[in-house]
UniProtKB/TrEMBL annotation:
<protein>
    <recommendedName>
        <fullName>6-phosphofructokinase</fullName>
        <ecNumber>2.7.1.11</ecNumber>
    </recommendedName>
</protein>
<dbReference type="GO" id="GO:0042802">
    <property type="term" value="F:identical protein binding"/>
</dbReference>
<keyword id="KW-0963">Cytoplasm</keyword>
<dbReference type="GO" id="GO:0048029">
    <property type="term" value="F:monosaccharide binding"/>
</dbReference>
<dbReference type="GO" id="GO:0030388">
    <property type="term" value="P:fructose 1,6-bisphosphate metabolic process"/>
</dbReference>
<keyword id="KW-0418">Kinase</keyword>
<dbReference type="GO" id="GO:0005945">
    <property type="term" value="C:6-phosphofructokinase complex"/>
</dbReference>
<comment type="pathway">
    <text>Carbohydrate degradation; glycolysis; D-glyceraldehyde 3-phosphate and glycerone phosphate from D-glucose: step 3/4.</text>
</comment>
<dbReference type="GO" id="GO:0046872">
    <property type="term" value="F:metal ion binding"/>
</dbReference>
<dbReference type="GO" id="GO:0070095">
    <property type="term" value="F:fructose-6-phosphate binding"/>
</dbReference>
<dbReference type="GO" id="GO:0061621">
    <property type="term" value="P:canonical glycolysis"/>
</dbReference>
<dbReference type="GO" id="GO:0005524">
    <property type="term" value="F:ATP binding"/>
</dbReference>
<comment type="similarity">
    <text>Belongs to the phosphofructokinase type A (PFKA) family.</text>
</comment>
<dbReference type="GO" id="GO:0006002">
    <property type="term" value="P:fructose 6-phosphate metabolic process"/>
</dbReference>
<keyword id="KW-0808">Transferase</keyword>
<dbReference type="GO" id="GO:0003872">
    <property type="term" value="F:6-phosphofructokinase activity"/>
</dbReference>
<keyword id="KW-0547">Nucleotide-binding</keyword>
Length: 327
């Protein structure tokens, strides 16, 4: 979609926080300034947009925030913006502040809201995908995924250290209510003995036999990585099943939870966030609207926000082969 060239850009972060958001915010601000636009921050996501919570963005403050996790703009999940009335009030606030374009950094739900807003009210709207679940259709990678995988992997490595010392068995839960990307990647990188994800039905008998065979040697630990949304119910039920299978052992249970959302973003996330940000501003400068930045291979592309939806982990032949060999 093409619209008139914007003069003033607002930027917000919506939904769950991820590492790399501050690098994205800074790059949008710098790219906007370089293109001759003024930039305004919106606090507290779509709720802040509805309430007119506009902020001046200081360059030095933005630079200092790059190494930090979270978002200096704060974020929220807005029920009001899911309604036509809420989006109309947001449009009213933007017009009152003489803002004609909007950059939304969010997951599939936030970007769906951005698509509806662009269609209804005629603002230039660009979306930037972020989620530690990496489950946004149209882009290979989302902001925050790389850091979350590394955080989970490092936690698994630490658990493995103590588990190896006592030849113990652990069930480790990572985030992923509907997607197995994080569990699969962290489990593969952490040399897990089993990975349970929402995209597959667990073959518990096969997994149990494999674990028992490995446990016979008593030379090391066993570790099963479980996505929170797996049909088993998460790591706690898995730990109970492991206890039944290994009654003589004390089964360890660790839920990584929100530790995966925080922390300093990796170089990969900072660079990806910066590339997405500049591409979004360049698109606005070119008069484009209703698009999302996406990484496809090593190229940054634009895809229609209206096509964005949640994407499950694709169990490609390569991924299945890797699991067959390594897990």
């Amino acid at each position: 979609m093409t619209t008139k060239v914007a003069k003033r850009i607002a930027i917000l972060t919506s939904g769950g926080d991820v590492p790399g958001l501050n690098a994205c915010i800074r790059a949008v601000a710098l790219a906007a300034e370089r293109s001759g636009f003024s930039i305004v921050g919106v606090a507290h996501g779509y709720d802040g947009l509805i309430d007119g919570e506009f902020l001046h963005l200081e360059t030095e403050v933005l630079r200092a925030a790059v190494p930090r996790g979270g978002t200096i703009l704060r974020s929220a999940r807005s029920k009001r913006f899911t309604t036509a009335e809420g989006r109309a009030e947001a449009a009213k606030q933007l017009r009152a502040a003489h803002i004609d374009s909007l950059v939304v950094i969010g997951g599939d739900g936030s970007l769906t809201g951005a698509a509806a807003f662009a269609a209804e009210h005629g603002f230039a709207v660009m979306g930037i995908p972020k989620t530690i679940d990496n489950d946004v259709e149209g882009t290979d990678v989302c902001i925050g995924f790389d850091t979350a995988v590394n955080t989970a992997m490092q936690a698994i490595d630490r658990i493995r250290d103590t588990a190896d010392s006592h030849a113990r068995i652990f069930a480790v839960e990572v985030m992923g209510r509907d997607s197995g990307y994080l569990a699969w990647a962290a489990g593969m990188a952490g040399a897990a003995d089993g990975i349970l994800i929402p995209e597959t039905d667990a073959d518990w008998r096969s997994l149990e036999e494999k674990l028992k065979e490995r446990h016979k040697t008593r030379t090391g630990s066993l570790l099963v990585v479980v996505a929170e949304g797996d049909e088993t119910g998460g790591a706690a039920p898995v730990a109970k099943r492991l206890q039944a299978a290994f009654p003589e052992e004390s089964i360890g249970l660790c839920v990584l939870g929100h530790t995966q959302r925080g922390g300093s973003p990796t170089a990969s996330d900072r660079i990806l966030a910066t590339r997405f940000a500049v591409a979004a501003v360049d698109a606005i400068a070119a008069g484009k609207s209703g698009m999302m930045t996406a990484l496809v291979g090593d190229d940054i592309r634009l895809v229609p926000i209206a096509s964005v939806r949640r994407r499950p982990l694709a169990l490609t032949p390569e991924r299945l082969r890797l699991m067959e060999i390594l897990i």
